[in-house]
UniProtKB/TrEMBL annotation:
Spans through the membrane: none
Domain of life where this protein originates: Bacteria
Its biological purpose: Catalyzes the dehydration of chorismate into 3-[(1-carboxyvinyl)oxy]benzoate, a step in the biosynthesis of menaquinone (MK, vitamin K2).
Catalysed conversion reaction: chorismate = 3-[(1-carboxyvinyl)-oxy]benzoate + H2O
E.C. number: 4.2.1.151
Pfam families: VitK2_biosynth
Classification via PANTHER family: CHORISMATE DEHYDRATASE
InterPro entries: Menaquinone_biosynth, MqnA
Any coiled-coil regions, as ranges: none
Biochemical pathway: Quinol/quinone metabolism; menaquinone biosynthesis
Organism listed in the record: Compostibacter hankyongensis
Source taxonomy: Bacteria, Pseudomonadati, Bacteroidota, Chitinophagia, Chitinophagales
Name of the protein in question: Chorismate dehydratase
Length: 249
């Protein structure tokens, strides 16, 4: 079998899911690359990779898809790194920039604006550096590590995972390991083992030590905000999200 082309998210949230590959034999059967989520999404849609930690909102764009592994980038409470950032309260927001690096959170934001917060600001496409345009009645959805920078700057922070949970009573899945073709069962099994290995206590501590940052406590991020297990409840949340976005106007 040719090497499986695997693409993963380049943010801090994904480091624990990659740690276990370094000393697992499955690495010999794969070629790993990293990039921001919307790029990986496009690579999986275009077929330039076989498997990716992709935003779940692209599932409807894949002719064939398989959710592999028991792990994901999810949340059962505030996620901290996916928020609507604003200098004014929700009801005063007139425009919202939608992060160009995201495919899931931008759809989640549209859903929440319409059905939960029930406000109708103009939605603006964003370009690199758009965070600087947040201000006054202009807000922005920012994801990943760049969201930690915004957390220190903005007066109002609306956490999208928290809002989803308040809206639906279900946890949320941002991204999951998804392939665009059936992969051998023995590969899937080994891959699952490797991606889960970094979540064990001592290894998670190593991940934290390897990625020093003063942006946010990574210990809190990995243990209290991001929830990595793709549990039955998360699968329910995912199914509900995919159903809800069909009706998005
Ligand atoms: C929690 C996060 O989840 C992410 C959000 C994604 C999206 O909005 O498309 C995709 C992958 C994840 O990295 C984050 O990036 O902060």
């Amino acid at each position: 079998m040719d090497k499986v082309k695997v693409a993963a998210v380049s943010y801090l949230n994904t480091k624990p899911l990659l740690y276990g590959f370094r000393d697992h034999p499955v690495s010999g059967h794969m070629q790993l690359s990293v990039d921001f989520p919307s790029r990986i999404a496009q690579q999986l849609i275009d077929g330039t990779v076989d498997l990716g930690l992709v935003p779940v909102a692209i599932i409807p764009f894949l002719p064939e898809h398989y959710i592999i592994s028991d792990y994901c980038i999810g949340a059962e409470g505030p996620v901290a790194s996916v928020c609507l950032f604003s200098d004014v309260p929700l009801e005063e927001i007139r425009e919202v920039y939608l992060d160009y690096q995201s495919r899931t959170s931008v759809v989640l934001a549209r859903l929440l604006l319409q059905d939960f917060w029930k406000i109708t600001p103009a939605l603006l496409p964003a370009e690199p550096g758009y965070e600087e345009k947040i201000g006054g009645t202009t807000a922005g959805v920012v994801i990943g590590d760049r969201a930690f920078v915004q957390r220190k700057k903005r007066k109002y922070i609306y956490d999208l995972a928290e809002a989803w949970i308040n809206h639906t009573g279900l946890p949320f899945v941002f991204a999951a390991w998804i392939s665009n073709k059936a992969l051998p069962a023995h590969f899937e099994q080994a891959f699952n083992e490797a991606t889960g290995a970094g979540l064990q206590g001592p290894r998670l501590e190593k991940v934290i030590a390897e990625n020093p940052t003063d942006l946010f406590s990574l210990h809190d991020y990995y243990t209290r905000h991001i929830s990595f297990e793709l549990s039955v409840q998360k699968r329910r949340g995912l199914a509900h999200f995919l159903e809800s976005i069909k009706k998005l106007s």
